[in-house]
Write a structure and sequence with these properties.
The complex is a heterodimer.
Chain A lengths: L7 E8 L8 E8 L6 H12 L18 E4 L2 E4 L13 E4 L6 E3 L2 E2 L2 H9 L22 H8 L9 H5 L12 H11 L7 H9 L2 H5 L5 H5 L6 H21 L7
Parallel strand pairs in A: 1-5
Antiparallel strand pairs in A: 1-2, 3-4, 3-5, 6-7
Chain B lengths: L6 E8 L3 H13 L5 E5 L15 E2 L8 H11 L6 H20 L14 E2 L9 E2 L5 H13 L5 E5 L1 E9 L2 E9 L4 E12 L20 H8 L4 E2 L4 E7 L10 H4 L3 E3 L34 H13 L4 E3 L2 E7 L4 H8 L1 H11 L8 E10 L2 E3 L11 E3 L4 E2 L12 H22 L5 H20 L7 H16 L2 E2 L1 H18 L13 H25 L8 E2 L7 H4 L1 E7 L5 E7 L14 H11 L1
Parallel strand pairs in B: 1-2, 1-9, 2-6, 9-17, 16-18, 19-20
Antiparallel strand pairs in B: 3-5, 4-5, 7-8, 8-9, 10-16, 10-21, 11-15, 12-14, 13-14, 14-15, 21-22
Helix pairs in contact in B: 1-4, 1-10, 2-3, 3-10, 5-14, 8-9, 12-13, 12-14, 13-14
Classes of the chains: A alpha+beta, B alpha/beta.
Chain lengths: ~250, ~600
């Protein structure tokens, strides 16, 4: 066996189980590999040191959205956080903030699932019932480009961890779900803007959103939820004044 | 527990990826009176459909025809596909893709507003619909978000299905562990659809995510259903060394080329046609060179490696995939994910450098034996998607047929399971309770057994190592038998598995152990099938039996679980309708061949 001194990096990992009084931080030494990401280190710990460490992951290529965590206090996909960026360490890994912890790095995302459903993120068509599927709806590249960015959300929820409104309000629909609402509102194939309006505009959170843009800064897919929220507020405000001043221009 | 407290549905779907969601929506839309449950071990939008990149095949353009798509699929399968199934698949594909379009899938478009198509390997015409190079991601999220509107669908997110409940010769539900509580509960149903995806994780180097462990195959197999054509494992020719992350075939569809360490486009040496200069407007040629089928390209890599024509790196040998000539604009509009992945995980920018790539386990042609209606031999049990084997893919799947398979057969499974549920009696709960108790005891044993000293991760590593050694791209009798013996031994060792985690809440150590148990089960079926198919066809290459043998093996293998738990392999004839087995040719000789075969 080689006696060369192996470079290691220290991990401080948040540990919690429901029957514990309080969480702890557990320390692990992990061999340093230049091409490893934080997720590789977690897998190393689980496979060789401590099988009780609990976290979510699957694709390890930044698209399934499972593996978000706070890495040194910043929301990251652990599969996209390279150890080399944190040398010489230590690296502290904690569950995403603004969510309840189930165990270790696993948080409850049920609240998000309800918010997502509440914005009706599906194509709404008046002709839906008579859909004959003979041909596609036409959509030009420009029309596609208008919503494409907002369709890239992988639901990793880093934006909720970064969001100052979400930090004090469980009710706020929040960046990802609002971006997806806007994604459908901007899609030329959709006719559901009216149906989504109330749930979006009645959310006090969007008026509280101060456009600090933390959600967009942490988004690994450059979705720009802050931009989506800003657009929704603009159209919401225009809509409000139009209803007030020119009610004859507004559909029932 | 009284009947009202029981979890019960008309149709239960196991798996929340593309096929499972499509199945659930088919039931919800066409049978609003039926109650549907979806059990998924991850939140559905985490399912591995999300990672599919290149696109989805269906005939929509005027210059294309169903005949052409059928011929490409059958020849791509090395004539092991069932031709009636392929014909139906190709006929139903356009409607299913238009349905996805109407559900909001953000397909890339032509200037006219029509859906755009791109070239893909083994396809004679451009027929692959795409949403940049994140097609699977968009398909999955479109399906998942669409399914949210149906009140008849109940989701069991992060529930792990462990066993099928069978009574009176009919499938009537499953048991599943709710991860959040650790509780094992029965979920009863009149019919069940398995849509749990592939099992690339039985190999060490795979594009598949951690969840692709074949649980659905194993529980069907243990319920007495055959696993079909398990020996056919697709190696995708272009994975990133180290991580196994996929670089989509669309990169070659757009014009990317493969080069060895001499800078040569080496595929020219492997009967895949002649290379055209990159500035020739006819490049890339369909069904030629880099647009040959995946099995042939991955096999060519091994031959180049034997000749010493590959590069060496810390994660094994590799060749170069070069897309630089496409230019930054085209790469960013058509292949943005390729650039993102190559930069993040390969450390190179494909706009200015070649991407190191090597073959990587990507897709399983084999799976749960189903018929053209997605029905298994067990009444009330259906299967669709990668976990199923109809078979339309035969010995080698063509790129961009698998996403299409999810929706075509997902929808069929949904409709047929709904019809079955309409006619069926409710599950016989009283008679099934003892099976639930037995399953609870089995899992408790794994959870609580005293120290046996075996670690899940070590057994898993030994399993993947032996699979690569004996059941890789080229196989021999001796190698497969060694692998089979090692797997048998690993199954013994699994009996001494020693969990670190003996708690209930979110016990991923336990789930990993159960997944390992299932992987060992289906790996044995794979090894037995590979051992008994003494010919070479498509992705199954036996160096001791190098030729295709239609006299004996124009047949599907069927592995059944014997009474002693070991697989017993038999064979069933392939369905041939109009396309008798021919020689499988690509490149220039292909055009004449295809024309004569189809006339």
């Amino acid at each position: 066996m080689s006696t060369a001194i192996e470079t290691t990096i220290k991990f401080e990992v948040f540990r919690y189980q429901p029957d514990w009084d309080e969480p702890t931080y557990q320390l692990y030494d992990v061999p340093y590999r230049e091409d490893w990401v934080v997720l590789d280190a977690l897998n190393y710990i689980k496979d060789t040191v401590d099988g009780t460490l609990t976290y979510r992951w699957s694709c390890r290529m930044g698209v399934c959205g499972s593996c978000g965590a706070m890495v040194n206090g910043y929301p990251k996909l652990t599969c996209a956080a390279f150890l080399s960026e944190y040398m010489p360490g230590p690296i502290r890994v904690e569950p995403l903030v603004n969510f309840n912890v189930e165990r270790d790095l696993v948080t409850s995302i049920e609240g998000f699932m309800e918010k997502l459903e509440s914005v009706q993120p599906w194509i709404i068509r008046e002709d839906g019932a008579t859909d004959d599927l003979k041909s596609e709806y036409l959509q030009t590249p420009d029309q596609h480009a208008a919503y494409q960015q907002f369709s890239m959300c992988i639901n990793c929820l880093l934006c909720y961890a970064a969001c100052p409104v979400s930090s004090h309000s469980d009710e706020f629909i929040g960046p990802a779900a609002l971006a997806l609402a806007q994604r459908y509102n901007l899609d030329t194939r959709d006719e559901g803007v009216e149906q989504r309006r109330d749930v979006i505009l009645k959310d006090e959170g969007i008026w509280e959103c101060s456009f600090v843009g933390e959600c967009s800064a942490v988004c690994p897919k450059h979705v720009d939820p802050a931009g989506a929220i800003q657009q929704a507020k603009m159209t919401g405000a225009i809509d409000y004044y139009r209803r007030l001043l020119m009610p004859w221009t507004v559909k029932s | 527990m009284s009947a009202v407290d029981q979890l019960q549905h008309d149709v239960l779907v196991i798996g929340g990826g593309g096929a499972g969601l499509r199945a659930a929506i088919a039931v919800a839309q066409e049978h609003p009176d039926l109650s549907i449950g979806i059990v998924s071990k991850v939140y559905p939008m985490r399912s591995h459909t999300v990672a599919a990149e290149g696109g989805m095949a269906a005939v929509i353009k005027d210059n294309d025809s169903a005949e052409d798509h059928i011929y490409d699929t059958i020849s791509g399968s090395d004539w092991l596909a069932d031709q009636d199934a392929v014909e139906m698949f190709v006929e139903e594909a356009p409607r299913e893709l238009i349905q996805l379009e109407h559900w909001g899938c953000p397909w890339s478009r032509e200037a006219t507003g029509h859906v755009a198509v791109r070239p893909f390997g083994g396809m004679k015409l451009q027929r692959t619909w795409f949403a940049t190079d994140k097609t699977g991601f968009h398909v999955l999220h479109s399906l998942f978000q669409t399914c949210l509107q149906f009140p008849s669908i109940t989701r069991y997110d992060e529930w792990f299905a462990t066993k099928l409940l069978v009574d009176d010769g009919r499938c009537q539900g499953c048991t599943a562990i709710e991860l959040r509580t650790g509780q094992l509960r029965p979920i009863y149903a009149k019919s069940v659809i398995i849509a749990t995806g592939g099992f690339g994780r039985i190999f060490p180097f795979t594009t598949n995510g951690a969840i692709k462990t074949g649980d659905g195959l194993a529980i069907a197999y243990r319920a007495g259903v055959a696993l079909k054509d398990m020996e056919f494992v697709q190696y995708h020719p272009t994975g990133l060394p180290g991580t196994g992350i996929l670089i989509t075939e669309a990169s070659r569809g757009e014009g990317g080329v493969l080069r060895n360490n001499k800078g040569e486009r080496y595929l020219a040496d492997y009967d895949l046609g002649e290379p055209l200069p990159l500035d020739d407007p006819r490049h890339p040629q369909l069904r030629t060179m880099e647009l040959g089928p995946r099995d042939r390209l991955s096999q060519a890599f091994i031959k180049e490696q034997e000749k010493g024509n590959t590069y060496s790196g810390p994660y094994g040998d590799y060749v170069h995939l070069d897309i630089q000539h496409l230019g930054e604009h085209r790469i960013d509009t058509k292949l943005p994910f390729v650039r993102e992945l190559a930069r993040n995980y390969g450390g190179i920018d494909p706009v200015t450098e070649s991407i190191p790539v090597r073959p990587v386990v990507h897709y399983m042609m084999g799976g749960i034996d189903t018929d053209i209606e997605a029905a298994t031999s067990l009444p009330g049990l259906y299967a669709a998607g990668e976990c199923a084997c109809v078979s339309i893919n035969g010995a080698n799947r063509l790129g961009s047929n698998s996403l299409t398979e999810l929706v075509v057969f997902g929808a069929r499974a949904g409709r047929n399971a709904a019809n079955f549920a309409h006619a069926a009696d409710p599950a016989a709960i009283d008679r099934l309770e003892s099976q639930v108790d037995d399953e609870r005891a089995r899992i408790r044993r794994i959870l609580e057994q005293p120290s046996g000293g075996e670690r899940v991760a070590e057994l898993r590593r030994d399993m993947t190592t032996t699979m690569e050694e004996g059941a890789g791209i080229y196989r021999t009798q001796e190698g497969i038998e060694q692998t089979y013996a090692t797997l048998s031994d690993l199954r013994e060792r699994f009996g001494s598995v020693d969990l670190d985690d003996r708690t209930n809440v979110y016990n991923t150590d336990l789930i990993s152990a159960l997944e390992l148990d299932y992987m060992l089960e289906i790996s044995l079926a794979l090894a037995a099938s590979a051992r008994d198919r003494t010919e070479s066809r498509g992705s199954h290459q036996r160096t001791d039996h190098p030729d295709r043998d239609d006299d004996h093996f124009l047949k599907h293998s069927l592995a059944m679980r014997g009474d002693d738990g070991t697989p017993e392999v038999s064979f069933r004839d392939v369905v041939i309708t109009k396309w008798p087995p021919g020689s499988r040719t690509y490149g220039s000789s292909d055009q004449a061949k295809a024309a004569t075969t189809e006339s």
